[in-house]
Amino acid sequence: MSQTEAGVESEPSTLAKSAPALTGKISWNAIAVFILLHLACLAAFFTEISWYVLILCGASYLVQMIGITVGYHRLFAHRSFKTSRPVQFLLACLGCSASQSGPSWWVARHRHHHRVSDTEADIHSPVAHGFWWSHCGWILSSDSDGTDADFVKDLKRYPEIRWLDRYFWVPPLVLAGLCFLLGGWSGLIWGFLISTVLTHHATFTVNSICHVWGRQRYATGDASRNNFLVALLTLGEGWHNNHHHYQSSAKQGVRWWEIDVSYYLIRLLACFRCVWHVRTPPKKGEATDSEQHSREVVDARN
Question: Side-chain half-sphere of 79: how many Cα atoms within 13 Å?
Fold first, then answer.
């Protein structure tokens, strides 16, 4: 099996160079989907609620969140570990199942965020654009449309990733169908609809809450913060200031008490040789490379 590779990008893309002003123009299609998804959750009041469907909801939430945190974020956006093509595709499918668009769109937006964090060009910065815009307003705007190809040339090498970018709705449809088969209408509502809404807002808290409330351990030149509650909700993504300092590290909870479930899962996969070359922050006594880590972005040209 071939493995994924990464390097370091030395030049900003067109999007980062031009830093266009945000228009704030409403995307009515995005708003319609957003509202309908939330309204559909109200059907929970008209269906049976049992421990079974609540467990199904929790399991679906974990699957979707793992796809975002381990797949979209730590593998694709930062290449913090290497893996085989089949495992890479599986993680991409899990990420897609969270209904947050395809891998390339998500990764391009995230890499751009790191390049221009908390400046006017950062589309989901609460410092530059306000809390609610950073939480969910930006995805309801046409400013979030499109994918900057310069940021994701490394992903475009893989035909299976290009396929998911085009048919990103397939994994959510499969997850919805599976939830319906396992629990009927209650399974669909709790296992897919409610879990998806919860996954969305938990992910959004990293953009909003973790740039407003929490502790800054490192001077990263932006407003990123560590937030314990967000870390619990997002399987470790809440150690956001740590992440902005050591961007290429698969381990975001750098202290023993900083719970990072996503990293524990990556280490478990490493034990079974499903992943390898897992990157972590430098140990004490080693030559410091924090400046390199804090600026590191995957080379999209390789």
Answer: 18
